[in-house]
Design brief:
It contains five helices and no strands. By secondary structure, the chain is mostly helical.
Length: 105
């Protein structure tokens, strides 16, 4: 996992043609769907750009745990990032995001 994360991080710094193709073919439909989902909680008339930024922000709340998994397993955090943790993190991020998105509306 660590090697994959390092490669992906490097690709984000200096994207190759392969990454651009991957994003276009795989991430674009996912981002579109995520934008549609968050739009339900945003005020009417929210721009496509703001809906996309909101979706990206929401996904970013969890990606830090993937990118820093090895560091978070060590002191001072000592997090055991397993299936149970992912379920709890999902509930927490959803609750926090829904509170924030509801207030934005």
């Amino acid at each position: 996992m660590s090697r994959f994360i390092r490669i992906f991080a490097w690709e984000n710094v200096q994207p190759s043609k392969a990454l651009r193709k991957l994003i276009t073919t795989n991430a674009t439909p996912f981002l579109t769907r995520a934008g549609e989902l968050v739009r339900r909680f945003l005020p009417p008339g929210t721009s496509d750009k703001d809906a996309a930024c909101t979706a990206i922000w929401l996904m970013g709340q969890c990606s830090v745990f993937v990118r820093n998994r090895e560091q978070f397993a060590q002191p001072p955090f000592n997090l055991k990032i397993d299936e149970t943790f992912v379920e709890q993190l999902t509930d927490l991020v959803c609750a926090l995001a829904l509170r924030g998105l509801t207030r934005a509306a």
